[in-house]
């Protein structure tokens, strides 16, 4: 019995001395908040982009009557052409289920949607949470947006969260661009983080990019975070006339 007790004491002591790893992302306090953001990407058939957006503009009120639209953009650069990207906010999964059911029973919405589905070639959806250290911010005026997507190494935010946070904050603090939000994917490709930036124009973004590449503070922070990076890509986004984020 004494030997067993001694062994148990050593095991408990080892556990108490072992370093505890804490994640600054959605595994922390923010997970108590059920609010999430659905990223939707529609790949439209060639030559149908303008027709789809014009139809959606006329009927957007039918969709926003059911849930909040954060932003709606056309993709100018980055990846496949004839693509639109939009973000919808939900209080929780029960709220989204309720919204989808209501949309299915909304005759006006269905009358609009059914013929316009023929203009869409492909659809994608991701469920994301805002990271705990970031709130959704609204730009001071109209401009353009960049969605930078980072595929991180397996292991989750406990592995790469701190380094990524420092890299983002460094970009924000030097003032070359404005942060709108940082989102961590819950359903979709795991270990993926999306960063939504705002700039006054494409040239303003390019100038800030060149300056940041020569800023030792930015260079040092990025070098640290790339140790955990698998791949990255970005999209240059133009807000539509009916997008809440301009």
From TrEMBL:
InterPro entries: Dimeric_a/b-barrel, NIPSNAP, NipSnap_domain. GO terms for cellular component: mitochondrion. Pfam families: NIPSNAP. GO terms for biological process: mitophagy. SUPFAM superfamilies: Dimeric alpha+beta barrel. Residues 37-135, 145-244 form the NIPSNAP domain. Belongs to the NipSnap family. This is Protein NipSnap homolog 3A. It comes from Carlito syrichta (Philippine tarsier). The gene is LOC103276047.
């Amino acid at each position: 019995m004494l030997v067993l007790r001694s062994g148990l004491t050593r095991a408990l002591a080892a556990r108490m001395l072992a370093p505890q790893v804490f994640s600054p992302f959605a595994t922390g306090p923010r997970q108590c908040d059920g609010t999430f953001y659905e990223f939707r990407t529609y790949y439209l058939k060639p030559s149908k982009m303008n027709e789809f957006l014009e139809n959606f503009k006329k009927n957007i009120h039918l969709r926003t009557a059911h849930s909040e639209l954060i932003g709606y953009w056309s993709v100018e650069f980055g990846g496949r052409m004839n693509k639109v990207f939009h973000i919808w906010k939900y209080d929780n999964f029960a709220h989204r289920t309720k919204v989808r059911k209501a949309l299915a029973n909304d005759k006006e919405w269905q009358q609009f949607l059914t013929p316009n589905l023929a203009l869409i070639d492909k659809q994608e959806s991701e469920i994301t949470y805002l990271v705990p250290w970031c709130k959704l911010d609204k730009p001071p005026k109209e401009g353009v947006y960049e969605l930078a997507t980072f595929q991180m190494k397996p292991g989750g935010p406990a592995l790469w969260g701190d380094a990524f946070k420092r890299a983002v904050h460094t970009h924000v603090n030097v003032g070359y661009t404005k942060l709108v939000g940082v989102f961590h994917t819950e359903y979709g490709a795991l270990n993926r983080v999306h960063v939504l930036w705002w700039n006054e124009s494409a040239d303003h973004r390019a100038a800030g990019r060149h300056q940041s590449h020569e800023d030792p503070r930015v260079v040092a922070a990025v070098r640290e975070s790339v140790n955990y990076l698998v791949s990255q890509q970005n999209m240059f986004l133009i807000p539509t006339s009916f997008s809440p984020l301009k």
